[in-house]
Structure formats: structure tokens, C-alpha cells
């Protein structure tokens, strides 16, 4: 998904289709993954990234199944979208963060005529919680990066070399990072609250450009094969119900029985 600022800075926002956050996760029958035959939606952190890209464009007076997630991003205000089709049978396992980073790097390099200056993506996906794609992409591109962003300020019109200031969430406080375009930014929860995709905007989104690509188009068939194998997935042990005690002495006795003291 892309959003543009003042027809100069182009922002690439990668989004992932994940199991909806409200769905109860169940282990698959083969014990090597989870049941994916459930409701899916846009990864919440990526939704924040889409919102931030659209807000950047608005602040700088810019022009305003798997596809359904892209359409949602378009309805939120993205200008156009790219769908990289990867048939499930073409991989020996789930698509890994390094593979995603290589795909994004190749797409960015192919857009030389209309350069992408910012990549804004969620800090992690809620299915694998890897939190690796943004950092790997910055490394592959040799671009500066700012992770866990809670505030993003762009100074200038979005030209290469213009300043970007990012406030980052860190343990015990905040850190402010100054960098220049091009740059990779990953979003944290407090960056913004994503807007609602209204029905009129959903209808308008159907007319926006949606380009389809394959891994073969990018020449990455061998590069994206998984390097890891999931041996087993299991649910955490069920917690036993608690009991009420009448007094402190009974509490101490119970704790001793449980080996806690």
C-alpha cells in the first residue's frame, strides 16, 4: 500500500492479513500451527501505519480475502496498492520476516522512476509476533530506521534528505531520533488511532489502482523459501480455579501445600 505527500514523497506501507484479534486461537489438528479457517483482518499495528501515512499526507496537503485488507487500506485513504501473490503451495512453510523484507526491498528498487522515501509498517504482526521485518528491511536497504514510533514529524516537502523526527517508546520513557529521508519507521500503539473506513470510501476504494505481482515477477522464487520448520504447536496448560480462604492462617497453609513458601 502506498500513500503520497504533495506528489513528492511516496510512503510505502506494508500490511499483513492476520487472524482477527478478537478470534480465540485454536491449535490445528496436525499440531504444527493454528487453525486459520477463521475471520481475518488487517494486522492492528499495520492499521496504525496506514493511518500515520494518511495523516502525514493530510498534514502536508497531499492528494487524497487478501484483497479485502488492501481495499480497507485504500478506503482509509491510501492512493494505490500492490498485491504480491504467493500461492500457499509454492512455499514449504509460512512466509518468514526475512522473505518479506526481500520482497519489499525489490519492490522499492523497482520503483526508481517515482522513488519511495518512507516505509512505515507495524512494529510486529499479531500472529507470529516476530517484530523483525522493519529492521531487516532497513538493513537490506542500508536506510536509517526508527522502531516503536509514538510520534512522527516530517520537516520539509518530502524530498530526499529532508528531516524526519521520530519519538520512540523505550523502557522507562521516550527517545527522540532525528534522521533524513529515505527511512524505515515501525509503529507503536500510541502513535495514533486508525480511522474508520466509511461505506462511501469503501466504494471509492474499488476504483483506486491495485497492481498485482507474483514472486516470479520479482525474481525471488528461491529467495523466499522458509529456513525454519515448526515442529509442534500446543496450547498453554489450563489454569486451575482459585479457592477462597477464611483467614491468614489458612492462606499460609494453602501456600505451604502448594510449595510457594
From TrEMBL:
<dbReference type="InterPro" id="IPR014730">
    <property type="entry name" value="ETF_a/b_N"/>
</dbReference>
<comment type="subunit">
    <text>Heterodimer of an alpha and a beta subunit.</text>
</comment>
<keyword id="KW-0249">Electron transport</keyword>
<keyword id="KW-0496">Mitochondrion</keyword>
<dbReference type="Pfam" id="PF01012">
    <property type="entry name" value="ETF"/>
</dbReference>
<dbReference type="InterPro" id="IPR033948">
    <property type="entry name" value="ETF_beta_N"/>
</dbReference>
<comment type="similarity">
    <text>Belongs to the ETF beta-subunit/FixA family.</text>
</comment>
<dbReference type="InterPro" id="IPR014729">
    <property type="entry name" value="Rossmann-like_a/b/a_fold"/>
</dbReference>
<feature type="region of interest" description="Disordered">
    <location>
        <begin position="226"/>
        <end position="246"/>
    </location>
</feature>
<dbReference type="GO" id="GO:0005759">
    <property type="term" value="C:mitochondrial matrix"/>
</dbReference>
<dbReference type="GO" id="GO:0009063">
    <property type="term" value="P:amino acid catabolic process"/>
</dbReference>
<comment type="function">
    <text>The electron transfer flavoprotein serves as a specific electron acceptor for several dehydrogenases, including five acyl-CoA dehydrogenases, glutaryl-CoA and sarcosine dehydrogenase. It transfers the electrons to the main mitochondrial respiratory chain via ETF-ubiquinone oxidoreductase (ETF dehydrogenase).</text>
</comment>
<dbReference type="GO" id="GO:0033539">
    <property type="term" value="P:fatty acid beta-oxidation using acyl-CoA dehydrogenase"/>
</dbReference>
<dbReference type="InterPro" id="IPR012255">
    <property type="entry name" value="ETF_b"/>
</dbReference>
<keyword id="KW-0813">Transport</keyword>
<feature type="domain" description="Electron transfer flavoprotein alpha/beta-subunit N-terminal">
    <location>
        <begin position="30"/>
        <end position="222"/>
    </location>
</feature>
<protein>
    <recommendedName>
        <fullName>Probable electron transfer flavoprotein subunit beta</fullName>
    </recommendedName>
</protein>
<feature type="compositionally biased region" description="Basic and acidic residues">
    <location>
        <begin position="226"/>
        <end position="238"/>
    </location>
</feature>
<dbReference type="GO" id="GO:0009055">
    <property type="term" value="F:electron transfer activity"/>
</dbReference>
Amino acid at each position: 500500500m502506498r500513500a503520497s505527500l504533495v506528489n513528492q514523497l511516496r510512503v510505502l506501507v506494508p500490511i499483513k492479513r492476520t487472524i482477527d484479534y478478537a478470534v480465540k486461537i485454536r491449535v490445528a489438528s496436525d499440531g504444527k500451527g493454528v487453525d486459520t479457517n477463521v475471520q481475518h483482518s488487517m494486522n492492528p499495528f499495520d492499521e496504525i501505519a496506514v493511518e500515520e501515512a494518511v495523516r502525514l499526507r493530510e498534514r502536508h496537503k497531499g492528494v487524497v480475502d487478501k484483497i479485502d485488507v488492501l481495499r480497507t487500506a485504500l478506503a482509509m485513504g491510501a492512493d494505490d496498492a500492490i498485491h504480491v501473490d504467493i500461492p500457499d503451495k509454492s512455499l514449504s512453510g509460512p512466509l518468514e520476516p526475512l522473505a518479506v523484507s526481500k520482497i519489499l526491498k525489490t519492490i522499492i528498487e523497482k520503483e526508481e522512476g517515482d522513488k519511495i522515501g518512507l516505509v512505515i509498517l507495524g512494529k510486529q504482526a499479531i500472529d507470529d509476533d516476530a517484530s523483525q521485518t522493519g529492521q531487516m528491511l532497513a538493513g537490506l536497504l542500508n536506510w536509517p530506521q526508527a522502531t516503536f514510533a509514538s510520534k512522527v514529524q516530517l520537516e520539509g516537502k518530502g524530498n530526499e534528505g529532508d528531516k524526519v523526527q521520530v519519538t520512540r517508546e523505550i523502557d522507562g520513557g521516550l527517545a527522540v531520533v532525528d534522521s533524513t529521508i529515505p527511512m524505515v519507521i515501525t509503529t507503536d500503539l500510541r502513535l495514533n488511532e486508525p480511522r474508520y473506513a466509511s461505506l462511501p470510501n469503501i466504494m471509492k476504494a474499488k476504483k483506486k489502482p491495485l497492481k498485482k505481482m507474483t514472486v516470479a515477477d520479482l525474481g525471488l522464487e528461491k529467495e523466499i523459501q522458509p529456513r525454519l520448520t515448526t515442529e509442534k504447536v500446543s496450547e498453554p496448560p489450563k489454569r486451575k480455579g482459585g479457592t477462597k480462604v477464611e483467614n491468614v492462617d489458612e492462606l499460609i497453609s494453602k501456600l505451604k501445600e502448594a510449595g510457594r513458601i
